[in-house]
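Async update (no meeting this week)

Hi team, since we skipped the sync, here's where things stand on the single-chain job. The sequence we agreed to prioritize is pasted below, unchanged from the tracker. I ran it this morning and attached the output directly underneath so nobody has to dig for it. Comments welcome in thread, and please keep replies under the output.
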Amino acid sequence: MANVPPKPRNNKGEPPSLEDTQHGFNPTRKNADGRKAQLNLYVDMEVKREFRSIAAANDMKHGELLEAYQEFWKKHH
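Output:
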């Protein structure tokens, strides 16, 4: 029988502290450098189709349209 050494254990070690991480795991903190984050969500196909057509009709990117919706909602609620 072959003498095979055991596989090394996969130990990732301790997680980094909040100060050492890039975002600090604080979802309310805003990035000063203007970076964008991906937003994945599920909506009805009709909502998606209408959203895309509104963005195309106004020559806007989807993110810009969503930000415009958010600003409108903040002003009126």
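Quick observations from my side:
The chain has two helices and no strands.
The mean pLDDT is 82.
Reply here if anything looks off.
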